[in-house]
Specification:
The chain is an alpha+beta fold. 42% of the residues lie in helices and 30% in strands. It has two domains: 47 residues, Ubiquitin-like (UB roll); 83 residues, Translation Initiation Factor IF3, CATH 3.30.110.10. It starts with a helix and ends with a strand. It is built from four helices and six strands, in the order αββαβαβαββ.
Length: 142
């Protein structure tokens, strides 16, 4: 335990700064260091952490109501890779021409796809029709 005046004198004699490290502690904790170097190191650490931090992406899987079961399994396998990599998967069925009248087939196809991935994904957005498309969003289970 040292008095503030003594600590400041000691820091000045060494050509360094007296920095308060833990101000909420009683008594407060101070450290003798070069403050400019400390700030530089902190910026470097935050920059490195930002670089290594992975951003989640939204990956899209396109289906059709005419997609057969084997092709659906292949697409589910690809979606599983995306979900394992912690990405969000957006499943889109595009309706063409007379397919617009068969919304029930699209919901059925989405249901099968959702069932294939139920062990690894949760449904963020249930199948919803938007114009010529039907969209469903899947999140990886945490």
């Amino acid at each position: 335990m040292m008095k503030i005046g003594e600590a400041i004198e000691k820091a000045k004699s060494q050509g360094l700064d007296l920095v308060e490290v833990a101000p909420k502690n009683e008594p407060s904790v101070c450290k003798i260091m070069d403050y400019g170097t400390y700030i530089y190191e902190q910026k470097k650490k935050t920059k490195k952490n930002k670089k290594t931090q992975k951003q989640t992406e939204i990956k899209t899987i396109r289906l059709s109501i005419r997609t057969e079961i084997h092709d659906l399994e292949v697409k589910a396998k690809q979606a599983r890779k995306f979900l394992n990599a912690r990405h969000i998967v957006k499943v889109v069925i595009i309706f063409r021409g007379r397919e617009m009248a068969h919304e029930d087939l699209g919901i059925e196809k989405m249901g099968k796809f959702q069932e294939m991935l139920s062990d690894i994904a949760t449904t963020e957005q249930n199948p919803k029709k938007q114009g010529y498309q039907m969209i469903m969003v899947l999140n990886p289970i945490k």
